[in-house]
Amino acid sequence: MKPSLRTLSLSVLVLALSGCAAEMAYRDGRNLVDKDQVEAGLLKYQEAVDRDPGNAVYRSAYINARDRTTARLLAQAEQLTAEGKYGLAAQDYQRVLALNPQNERARGGLRALEMADRHDKLLAQARVSLEQKEFEAAKNRVGTVLTEKPDHVAGRALMREINEQAPQPPAESGLSKAYKTPITIEFREAPLKQVFDIISRRSGLNFIFDKDVKSDARTTIMLKNSTVESAIYFLLMTNQLEQQVMDSNTILIYPNTAAKLKEYQETVVRTFYLSNAEAKTVANTLKTILKTRDVVADEKLNLVILRDSADAVKLAEKIIATQDQAEPEVMLDVEILEIKRSSLMKLGVDWPNTVGLSVLNSAGTGDKLKLRDLDNLNRDTIGISSLATTVNAKKTDGDTNLLASPRIRVRNKEKAKVVIGEKVPVITTTISPGSGGFASESVSYVDVGLTLNAEPTIYLNNEVGIRIALEVSNLIDRVTTPTGTTAYQIGTRQASTFLQLKDGENQVLAGLINSEERSTGNRVPGIGDLPILGRLFGSQTDDKQKTEIVLSITPHLVRNLQRPEVTAAEFSAGTEANFRRKPDVTPRQNVVLPGARPAGTPAAPAAGTPDAGAAAAAVTSSVPTPGAVPASEQAAPQKLPLSGTQPGPASSVTKPLPAPTPAPANTVQPPASTERKE
Question: Strands 463-480 and 439-458: what pairing?
Answer without folding.
Answer: antiparallel
